[in-house]
Amino acid sequence: MTQDLYRQVILAHYRQPANRYKLDGANVAGYSHNPLCGDEISVYARIDSGRLTEASFEARGCSIVQASADMMADCVRGQTRADLDATITAFESMLEGPDEEPDVALGDLRLLREVRKFPVRIKCALLPWKTLRDALGKSNSQP
Amino acid sequence: MTQMSKNGFPVERIREDFPILKQLIHGRPLVYLDSAATSQKPQSVIDAVVRYYREENANIHRGIHYLSERATADYEAARRHIARFINAPDPRETIFVRGTTEAINLVAHSYGRRFIHADDEIVISAMEHHSNIVPWQLLCEQTGAKLRVIPITDDGELIVDAYAKLLNSRTRLVSVVHVSNVLGTINPVKRLVEMAHSMHIPVLLDGAQAVPHVPVDVQDLDCDFYAFSGHKLFGPTGIGLLYGKTAWLDQMPPFQGGGDMISTVSFERTTYNSLPYKFEAGTPNIAGTIGLGAAVDYFQGVGVEAAARHEHDLLDYATEVLAAIPGVRLLGNAPEKTGCVSFLVDGVHAHDVGTILDQHGVAIRAGHHCAMPLMERYGLAATARASFAFYNTLDEINVLAEAIDEVKEVFS
Ligand SMILES: Cc1ncc(COP(=O)(O)O)c(C=O)c1O
């Protein structure tokens, strides 16, 4: 079962994250931490004319937090607000909802469905997404 | 299979007393290396709790009927027994609480309210559990008192010279951990008490991780308060003990108000019950207390010294085996150590270590261990911790090492 969770693709995102940096000129930014385990993450995004053009993150945490964040940044690039909402919801329900195939294309992120078998790690996989959702919510409410 | 430890400790026979240890986890024998979080319970403790509920459940100190008398007698017998176990001079000085956390909060509230004022100082150490940090911070916020922190060395030892310099005429209390839950360091608490007493400063010791591993004699230590949790001492959850010297307890106001803690109540004036009842408001954890009495009985039957010797072998062996694995680093190298090894695997977060070990049936703790300031001291977010009890075997440490090999393979 260990092999199901720690696929090479996931480990590659953990070891060599392409999107792990502070994004200059971000107009969406959020920070979260998991007080139970001390994991910390910052998520950055730039939205130009209603479309997310770039996303990145900085994190201190386990392989699942980091791989999830790195894949998320790849996945959401180019999405509109409506796409983002649908993607975030699809990812969350893939981990927490009924055990069904996600109805939105999630690409490699689907590998993280294995996390369902490791209930204590679901929070890790969700942390970047929750951070992005909160950050988008905040930027929405700004004039 | 009859496996004995090096010094003839009958560990396989002892394991028979712990039903939970016979389980398979993910198809493999459970290797329980998380006793510092909570220990497992022998059958005799489980039986004592069940017997209480089946045969003598009644409220105590108030019934005039047969069951109530029996429950009261057993509850008080457990108190005397547990008091003797830590060599408290008088069972009236042993107060039942929910655990270490509640014991420390009791002192922070009651001692704090009476004796701690603005600009007074409270001394703790850099290796405290959050439960021996946050109650004092809350008290400092309320009173304007200040928290002072004894620094530690890279190896995880208290710097006693620095401690000496922290003590002054404004110091009202020293509250330090007897054995660290992360580093395993056994602090020189007797000496710390002496030094504080030479300046008339009382000392509270957090014995949560000490009582299961080293013989504790509160009169020899001469501490003013001693706190521990039953669930780490092979007993039930929700029961623990605060020992306090009468001289202090008598001067302290009650912690909580309610039934049992009063002598007389009128709307004009309430007088308080005598020790220890003044600090035991409401119906206590009767089953837990009786279970803890049984746990102490069991532990004494095993032999506190014999258990400590066996655990010493486990710790030595674990240290040797883990230190020999390339890419594994140990945290906490104090010469006086017991109970646990904290370790890091290069390039692998402690949670990932924990998940892979769990697939091998190996239960460890991964995280900050409720000691975030200590983690900060070492610039770490998390460690993996394997902690021991007398029911662990040398073989289980081999299983741990094999599982760590797989962690390294997965992340290689
Ligand atoms: C050193 C130390 N102090 C205090 C505590 C708190 O004990 P409890 O949660 O039983 O109140 C613990 C438990 O982890 C501990 O290890």
Describe the structure.
The complex is a heterodimer of chains A (143) and B (412). By secondary structure, chain A is of the alpha+beta class. Chain A has a single domain (2-138), classed as Sufe protein. Chain: A (Alpha-Beta Complex). Chain A has helices at 2-5, 8-15, 63-76, 81-96, 122-141; strands at residues 28-34, 39-48, 51-60. Chain A has a 3-stranded antiparallel beta sheet, covered by helices on one side. In chain A, strand 2 (39-48) and strand 3 (51-60) form a beta hairpin. The N and C termini of chain A lie far apart (48 Å). With 412 residues, chain B is an alpha/beta fold. In chain B, 39% of the residues lie in helices and 17% in strands. In chain B, strand 5 (121-125), helix 5 (134-143) and strand 6 (146-150) form a beta-alpha-beta unit. In chain B, helix 11 (304-323) packs parallel to helix 14 (394-410) and helix 12 (350-359) crosses helix 14 (394-410). Chain B starts with 10 loop residues before the first helix and ends with a helix. At the A-B interface, helix 1 of A face helix 12 of B.
